[in-house]
Write a structure and sequence with these properties.
heterotrimer; A mainly alpha; B alpha/beta; C mainly alpha; B: alpha/beta; 6-stranded mixed beta sheet; 3-stranded antiparallel beta sheet; C: mainly alpha; 14 helices; globular; disordered C terminus
Amino acid sequence: MQILHSGLLQRALVEIVVLGAACGALGVWLLHLRHAYAAESLAHAMLPGLVIASLLGIPLLLGAGAGVLATAALIALATRDARVGSEVAVGVTVTTAFGLGAVLALSPDVPVGLDKLLFGDLLGAGTADLLAAGALALLIALALAAGHRRLALTVFDPVAAPSLGARPARVELALLALLGVAFVAAVLSLGNLLVFALLVAPAAAAIRIAHGVASQLWLAAGLGAGAGLVGLVASAELDVAAGGSVALAAVALYALAALARPAGGRGVGGTRRSPVEALGAGR
Amino acid sequence: MSARAARLDVDGLAASYGAGPPALRDVSFSARAGQAVAVLGPNGGGKTTLFRALLGELGTVAGSVAIGGAVAYVPQTERSRLDFPVSALDVALMGAYERTPWYRRIAAPDRALARAALERVGLAEHERRRFGELSGGQRQRALVARALVQDAGVLLLDEPFAGVDSTSEEAIMGILDGLRADGRVLLIATHDVEQARRWDRVLCLRGAQVAYGPPASTLTNAVLEATYGEEIVMLDCGHRAVAIQHHDHAH
Amino acid sequence: MRWLTDPLSAPFMQRALLVALALSVAGGLLGTWIVLRRLAFFAHAVGSATFPGLVVAGPWGIAPQLAALAAGLGFAGMLSRATRSGATSADAATGLLLAGALALGSVLASDVYESGAGVDRLLFGTLLGLGDGDVRLAVAVALVAAAATAALARTWLATGFDPAGARALGVAAARGDWLLLALLAATVVAALPAVGALLVSTLLVVPAATARLLTTSLSALLSTSVAVAAAESIAGLLLAYHLDLPPGPAIAIVGGAAFAGAALASAAPWRRGARVVT
């Protein structure tokens, strides 16, 4: 197997397994707090930041970080206006960001590797990237451990949470900050279109299968790491895009979980609804 | 439970959501250990606002609050996240979160406390069941167990009998009597005028305090009209008043 | 006026303009419903999910529109299955299936078909390089959208505002919704050659969102959406021509700026919290 011989692949493997585990666990809280849409939009709208960093020749991680901050601010601003729904305002922000990124990236003068920014460059991981990813993943793991009870309170009973030791607004902000960290860590490997898969697919699978939050967190971490492993090995053996393979592996795991537990998770819903209600953002 | 100096003194309280005008004004009352106060009023009249102000969640625009003992909130469980995978025991243990540092497991005495609390509210054999799978009355009792683990001196109960079957209602009544016997202060938000008559005191709210005192002398027709406006229906030639409650069916 | 007449004398620009205007009609009309019925994320996701179909269309010798439609419908079907039990929210399922579709496209493009730079065209469109088929499809979809809106506006509005009541209306409401989704799929497919898989929202969501900031009555929303979409498309096309920019993204930027401008300009106190009335 190639992976056993190539230093490049080994580095990529370590990086993606560590990131997969961290993103998987983080994703569980993201889903319980119902922030999936915000997370996805944040990831997508990072594109201009990445492109600008690439054009300016500064480290992409900085561009990713700046992009995340700018987008979060814009989304917060847009959400505050009650006239247009937040879903639409966020959608406008994301589309404009894509347009801006594409205009900058597709200019004939300095062609930026748009492909790599969109779909990632997992195999281009240097040692520095690996260390950065590892450090950020560790940060995420520590933060989740330290904040576990506060997160549970924020999800379960935000009104009573202050009397039990948690301030929901702060907890949510901290979680979004962690999300930003996860994106910055993973965007170079998977690109800003695919990073969401690693964040949400293992978590969504774990929530269907496991009962109890702690087991969901561990399972999601395992599935995320597994998706990284399977995806990277498959990409190396079949000689296809690495980032895409990892993302596909994650989504495939989710599909398996959904088939195995069609009604798993005992969520809200199941009443007959019109197709538009079911597919749209009806809450 | 040892006796505690549970008490609640509210003086000229006003609270608001954000920068707008106060959602609640001029609230002044005192409750002593072992007293249960019914908080009566229409939807949007300020019952929940009062609770959130007492919890310290809302900014108090004016006035003061003095609370002896911890405050626990027992919310309506329709609003809870029923799909969150926690057991009844997990919920009871939440009462100990604030005193447990994040790197420690919850201490054995607290675990025993949680089990005892569940036993006391009659949920001992359900402690492993998922919270979302319990009945409405059982969920209420689990949240009361949580308040017991908090060892709260003041309990704020938001319509604890709403949507609860009569067997659970009796059980909950028994539990509340036990809490009063402990020497705790109970605030019970309700829209049921008849139920309000059962407690020691009643506080009528409609954006501001309308009246406070023992139910017999306080729940006059005039007070009820001032509290509910035209949502009051008089029965028995004016001897009884019933409040019309609009239920929000958008679940 | 050379800046206006020069571009319009070129045939490829005339074609682009025609398609842009047709798509403005379809996108503006449909976009109103997308915004009102909270389908913005879904619309964007369907557009992006056509990517793998577009990648394999050439190599497999299928018409791109058909491949795209198949991919989009497959996505919608999987989404519907995933959300049926309620264990996964619509947001989460939409997002992860969307990422999966993009990943699939990326994998297929990377090695299987070595599409390389062609991927950019599929993702961001080639408004200045359209064929006759693209023009015909765009015009056809515009006509269908106009006819459907005329016939079904009332049903769609009723179903959106009162799903429970609409259910009581029964078959008519459900059929109306299926038609809405079908029309959405058709419009998405028609828009793909022009703006690409990632930017369908430029025509299907952004103009309607901007219109929503400016007006509240349904008929005004419909006409304003179309007008805004047309204006943005023309402006974007002109910018693309003169500054040598990719046209789809240029329209997207114009759209975003217009939205921001409308938000600022109309942030008058009396407009806060306005609702749609018929």
